[in-house]
Amino acid sequence: MSVIVIAVGSESGVPIFSRKRGNIDNVQFSTIASLHGINMFSKCHNLSMINTHVDNGSILWKEYCKSITLIAISTGGLECDLELLLSLVHDVMIFCVGKKELENFKNIDQIKRELRQCYPILDYLLESLDPNCVPQTSMLLDLIQSILCPQAQHLQQVLDNYAERVTGRWACLSIHGHLVATSSDFHELDSREAKILLLLAASQDGAPLRETPVYLPNMSPNVAFRAVTCKLLADVYVLVICGATPALSQIDEIVLQCWESSTHLIKEAKLIYPRNFPLSITFEPCILGCLVINVSKKRCVFSRHLHNNNQKIRSMSGVHRMDILRTFFITTARDLAPELKVKDGDEKDIMSTLPGMCETFWCSEYHKCHAHRSGNLIGCVLYAPTIPTHTMRLLTSQMLQEIGNCKDVYW
Q: In this predicted model, which residue has the larger pLDDT, 247 or 202?
């Protein structure tokens, strides 16, 4: 698979940046000019290209703020909502430089320099779309990948205390790029803002303590906040949004005071990865992998390491299983969550489609997939091809019921 995202000035067509992932050559200036010319031609005739397919791939153009046009090219069979990807890329740009700067820039070289700070986040985002990437932290663009662990409730109390001490409000703890716990007020943030904050923490390259000015695309697109990211343990980061005080040196001391006594909780939570579900939840041996989604909180949990005996599945690698589950959800099971599809005020039309639909499935020679919705939870499960359909329905329903009733699950 490969994906490339190009930003150009809407009026001038001058390239601003180009980021890619996969085996794809850099796009030459002449090709970028041609791609921009196609888009300009359609605009001049009051047309818009909703979807454009090429050999083994697709291309999408999208203009934002009437100043920047983003172009996405996906090849190699990557199942990815390109419109959603470009929207997220645009949010990352606002996150780094602010909406007003994007709308009103006059110097193309200056905006190029300012947008360089978003490269690590964009690169991490594109990299995590690849099922071969470890850890896989952004396989579904509109959902926040999480770890469900019994320590989350205690860690929330620590996060609330830490946020209060640094005069902050929103704080979160991530392990291997997955959301583990949040402060009590974290739900006030839009899920896209929360996702970008996690990407910021995951792209820190091991820095022990760092502060970054950030603009929240929905809550505060023009006034910057201060995001402070601290590395607690290997692959464990705590991020808090706070004001100009206290100083970074003081926050370093506060981190030690707040988190030193909770190290054992973090280490216990870290052991849940890569299973990502509490050990108190058991899975049938015929389940090869699963994806559980909390629709209202827009969080999801992937796992292919469900069984303690580490049994190997012949003819199907772990990466392949994860890719099947993602493709199944993007192309089919997403219909079980019409709330996730709402765009540009089309809520009535979307909610009227497929009323009452609560399950769907795939069957193939090599595997079967089944998805079931129960309340706010959707379970997508990968089964061996020999499992009868009625058994899949029963097992998926039982799995969702167990997760919904488990006291060790804290979203």
A: 247
